[in-house]
Amino acid sequence: MSVVTSILHTLPLPANEGTGFTPISLSISFQGSIAQSALLNFGTIPLQVTIQLPRELGGQVVPVIRHISWTEFVSNVESQSVPQFMIPFLPLPPSFNPLCEASWSVLAREVESWLVNTIRDVRAPEWAWGCNAFWMAFIAANPDFPRGSWPNWNPKISLEGKFIESWTADNLTMPADSPLSQHILDEIRRSIWDDFQLSFPFPLPPYL
Questions:
Q1: Which range among 134-143, 156-165, 197-206 shows the weakest confidence by mean pLDDT?
Q2: Could you give the CA distance from residue 137 to residue 143 in angstroms, rounded to a whole number?
Q3: Whole-number percent of the chain with pLDDT over 90
Q4: 193 neighbors 140 (Cβ within 8 angstroms)
Q5: Straight-line distance from the first to the last Cα atom of the chain, in angstroms, rounded to the nearest whole number
Q6: 117-126: long-range contacts at Cβ-Cβ below 8 A with a sequence spacing of 24 or more?
Q7: Which residue of 71, 110, 168, 195 pairs with 89 in a disulfide if CB–CB is 3.0 to 4.6 A?
């Protein structure tokens, strides 16, 4: 049996009640090869992944492991029009906090600037991908949208795309004077953060 152990690090993340931890994106590759005959008894190869927290945190925090197969990963990448060059707003800074309005607001402005000043062509596949990233950041910074008040954005960026169309359809019927509690705001941003990470064809840095 081959066993490899590695120590990873995460950072504290302010939560509604206490402190949580930032998620970690992890990829696993394999070096070496084995004879084809050794695989006869296997359909898929079982792997055991164990997450061990410091003893002092036992019972207070429960790790949740989600995985995606390489085949599904490649399929998702091929089904998306993903930019093949450097994206200036990535990697996100270590100070980025998925529950912080200011972090998302800065990111929205950076994505907007990249779209308008670098991509420019609304027919480019990078434009559609970038617009989706922009609207995730914009909504995370302004969860009341399309109600209430919000900052102006470049009109070249239209209200089109899977994320923003779903968001506006779900929120148009909400009363305009219905305030969002901090708990609801945190849940909205956590959900958007999960979607934001899945929109990239490569793991985001572990400190996010």
A1: 197-206
A2: 10
A3: 27
A4: yes
A5: 33
A6: 118/88, 122/156, 125/81, 125/82, 125/83, 126/81, 126/82, 126/83
A7: 110
